[in-house]
Design a protein that fits this description.
Order of helices and strands of chain B: HHHHHHEEHEHEHHEEHHEHHEEHEEHEE
Structural class of chain B: alpha+beta
Structural class of chain A: alpha/beta
Low-confidence stretches of chain A: none
Strand content of chain A: 15-25%
Oligomer: heterodimer
Mean pLDDT of chain A: 90
Largest interface: A-B, 16 and 16 residues
Shape of chain B: rod-shaped
Distance between the termini of chain A: 8 Å
Low-confidence stretches of chain B: none
Mean pLDDT of chain B: 85
Helix content of chain B: 55-70%
Number of helices of chain B: 16
Shape of chain A: globular
Largest sheet of chain B: 6 strands, antiparallel
Number of strands of chain A: 5
Order of helices and strands of chain A: EEHEHHHEE
Distance between the termini of chain B: 82 Å
Radius of gyration of chain A: 13 Å
Chain lengths: ~120, ~675
């Protein structure tokens, strides 16, 4: 089942076509750090105020914004991980995705996609 | 100390404790050293890790500084000067991280993370260099946002890796600190526990040892007090088989030794006292019998004997005679009245060897004299002492003491017994001398009386003869020749007798002063005896004595003929005197060295006990009144024979006559 209003994009070399919500969650929270082909994973977040991010944390992460913030604060001390960088501009985001092998991010589904990114289908919880 | 008893050594225990203390301290030192060494190396590691953490922190801070480059580029305020600062900053970060990787004690995982960080830094620097190029050549409105984001991405990566490295290092540091704590804590606990156990052990041993020492010292002190008060019989109990036990045992040996010494001293005082009493009492004795009685009585008392007997040796030393005794029954006295010296019994043996003989029990006695012990079991001997009595080289007899229980004779006991015997011998000798001198005085008085009587006897008839002759000469009837002849003949007899008496007295005088000089020459003994028989014909006839002279062979000997004649005449006169009217036999024999003259009468005989006496001065064979004489004949005879190196003795039995045997060497006198 596709997330409503969100589309997941990845580097065009990415071999994966489908991801579950939990897989995406693990990627976001840096519990999974590499793709199956061992390419390092890099998640780009969206500005906190954006609607798509709210949709993302609600639909995919299934947490509140505050919980996510707290998670990253904790992780900074626990594992040293920091929250994924946030990119505001959709175009720049797509540019970045195309430049970083192993990168992944999300966009509102109404944004036109360039040919330099690959969409990932979200299936299941 | 039996094998079951366990020896305990105080010094051994103390040595053990000291060794344990030494071992304990060594063990503690080793544990402490090992623990401290680990601790120090642990601390060093923690320090290194802390240094690495600091370096990471500084790097993070510097990296934030570097991040400002991107902000300035965003704001378009960036200059070439800023780039120099950025590059210097990056160089410092890189050096710090390389130094961190090079630190000892940093785990490989952490190093890998730092390497990742370095890798991100390189990409960050590369991004910034690229960005700077674009920044310089950009169009006025060209956006560098994507490039900046990419560079920031690398910067963030480097920061993230550094944070991870920091966290790993902290964890390592914590882990090490915990390890250090546990490494220190466990040995410390063990040391404390061991110390407490050891302390208890040492206190226990120390307490036990001091208790033992205290009790042992008190025990010994008590014993010393008792001994000091004179209780030398006291034996201190041996409380423990340790050094004090040994000391106590030695102490007991010492007190026993002191007691023995004291007993010995008391005994010696008693002995001295006994000897003194014996000497005092013996000094009072004048007669041998008195001395013997005293000797037995005091000797028994001194030696604590149950019986005592005194045996004297006869004059020729052939037998012992029981002279006095005490504590022996009649049967034994009867059996042991006379003991020939040839008999092999302990008492004769002691005289022969002139050595005291002691038996401590009947087994010893039985072993040495089995036959005697069996034959005289009624003596019921246990211990006994046979002490020979002698003065100078003269054996006087022996004194014997017996005991009804076994007893030991130590050297002191033996010496004491010998000292008693010496005192007794001296007393016996002295009393015997006294008795002899008394007898000599008596004999002399008797001799004087007899001599004056004997000398006077021929004088009275001589005087009468002379008076008769005088009367005859003055008579008116004229001289009666036959009467005068008879008177002269009688007078001659009386003169002869008188002259013989005087000659004998002269001989005695010569012998006494050692002036009996012999004039030896080779003579025929046969002829000499034959001539004598002829010369004595009248006298023999007068006494109605028939003489037979038995001569088997011719005997030639070198002797003083005058003195030898005197010997034979004396022996024949002796026979005439004691056995008148009885046959007399003279025998002459010889062997290679000696010749023997036997004068055998059939007279009353002589008692065995008188065998020695009759050859003494002023002694007569019997005190028969009808036999006159001075008792000098046999004495002079013996002296003459002995001066010829010969021997004379008598063999006789009472009532069966007597045989005087005179043996002389054929050629002793050259």
């Amino acid at each position: 089942m596709l997330a409503k209003g969100i589309v997941f994009i990845a580097h065009p070399d990415c071999q994966v076509t489908k991801l579950s919500r939990s897989q995406i969650r693990d990627m976001y929270f840096k519990k999974t750090r590499a793709w199956p082909d061992h390419t390092a994973m890099r998640f780009f977040d969206r500005p906190e105020t954006s609607q798509v991010r709210q949709m993302f944390i609600k639909d995919i992460l299934n947490r509140s914004s505050r919980q996510v913030d707290r998670y990253w604060i904790e992780q900074k001390f626990k594992s040293g991980d920091s929250a994924p960088s946030s990119v505001d501009n959709d175009r720049i985001l797509q540019d970045l995705i195309s430049r970083f092998p192993g990168s992944i991010s999300y966009l509102p589904d109404d944004v036109p996609l360039t040919k330099n990114v690959k969409t990932i289908e979200v299936t299941g919880p | 100390m039996t094998s079951e008893q366990k020896n305990y050594s105080i010094t051994g225990r103390l040595t053990l404790v000291m060794l344990l203390i030494a071992f304990f301290f060594v063990a503690i030192a080793v544990v402490q050293f090992t623990a401290n060494r680990g601790y120090v190396s642990g601390l060093t590691k923690i320090n290194t890790i802390n240094l690495a953490i600091n370096l990471c922190s500084q790097s993070l801070e510097a990296l934030n500084d570097s991040g400002n480059v991107l902000t300035e580029m965003e704001e378009k305020k960036f200059t070439g000067k800023k780039l120099d600062y950025f590059e210097e900053n990056q160089k410092v970060i890189r050096d710090s991280l390389i130094r961190t990787i090079g630190l000892p004690g940093i785990s490989e995982g952490t190093k890998d993370i730092i390497r990742e960080s370095l890798h991100s830094l390189t990409r960050f620097e590369g991004s910034v260099a690229l960005l700077y190029q674009q920044y310089q050549t950009r169009e006025k409105d060209q956006s560098l946002e994507t490039e900046i984001l990419i560079a920031r991405q690398f910067s963030n990566d480097a920061r993230e890796y550094l944070r991870k490295a920091q966290i790993d290092l902290r964890e390592d540091s914590d882990k090490l600190a915990r390890q250090l704590y546990s490494d220190r804590f466990l040995p410390s606990m063990i040391v404390i526990a061991l110390s407490m156990l050891f302390f208890v052990f040492v206190i226990t041993i120390g307490f036990r040892v001091t208790t033992r020492i205290r009790l042992s010292v008190r025990n010994l002190a008590g014993a010393t007090d008792r001994v000091t008060l004179g209780d030398y019989h006291f034996q201190a109990p041996i409380l423990n088989h340790d050094e004090f036990g040994v000391l106590t045992s030695r102490f007991n040996t010492m007190t026993t030794s002191i007691q023995q010494g004291k007993d010995e001293l008391t005994k010696n005082i008693e002995r001295v006292h006994s000897l003194q009493t014996l000497a005092e009492r013996l000094a009072e004795a004048l007669r041998p019998n008195e001395a013997m009685e005293i000797a037995i009585e005091e000797g028994m008392k001194a030696l604590k004997a149950t019986s005592g007997s005194f045996l004297t040796l006869n004059s020729d030393g052939s037998f012992l005679e029981l002279a006095a005794s005490q504590g022996l029954d009649v049967e034994i006295l009867r059996k042991w009245q006379v003991i020939p010296m040839s008999l092999d019994v302990p008492i004769t043996e002691s005289i022969r060897r002139n050595q005291a003989i002691f038996f401590e029990n009947h087994e010893q006695f039985q072993k040495s004299y089995p036959t005697f012990f069996r034959d005289f079991s009624e003596l019921r001997l246990e211990a006994s002492a046979m002490l020979p009595l002698s003065v100078g080289k003269k054996d006087l007899g022996a004194i014997a003491f017996s005991f009804d229980t076994p007893r030991e004779f130590g050297q002191e006991d033996k010496d004491f017994a010998v000292a008693v015997a010496r005192q007794v011998a001296q007393a016996l000798f002295r009393t015997q001398l006294y008795e002899k001198s008394q007898q000599a005085i008596q004999a002399r008085d008797e001799f004087l009386s007899i001599a004056s009587h004997e000398l006077k006897t021929p004088l009275t008839p001589l005087k009468l003869q002379l008076q008769m002759l005088s009367r005859n000469l003055n008579s008116d009837k004229g001289l009666d020749k036959a009467k005068i002849e008879k008177t002269l003949k009688d007078s001659d007899l009386h003169f002869n007798r008188l002259s013989k008496l005087i000659l004998n007295l002269l001989d005695i005088s010569r012998i006494s002063s050692g002036k009996l000089i012999l004039s030896p020459e080779l003579v025929s003994v046969n002829g000499l005896i034959r001539d004598l028989i002829v010369q004595l014909h009248d006298q023999l006839e007068l006494n109605k004595v028939q003489v037979t002279f038995k001569e088997n062979e011719e005997v030639q000997a070198v002797i003083d003929p005058v003195r030898f004649e005197q010997v034979v005449v004396n022996l024949i006169s002796n026979a005439l005197k004691y056995a008148p009217e009885k046959p007399l036999r003279i025998e002459l024999t010889k062997n290679q060295l000696n010749f023997q003259v036997k004068v055998i009468d059939a007279g009353p005989g002589i008692e065995r006990k008188d065998f020695g006496r009759i050859f003494q001065k002023f002694e007569r064979i019997s005190s028969v009144d009808n036999v006159g004489g001075l008792g000098l004949g046999l004495y002079i005879t013996k002296q003459i024979v002995e001066s010829h190196k010969g021997n004379i003795w008598v063999e006789s039995e009472l009532g069966k006559g007597a045989t005087f045997i005179c043996e002389l060497p054929l050629r002793t006198i050259s």
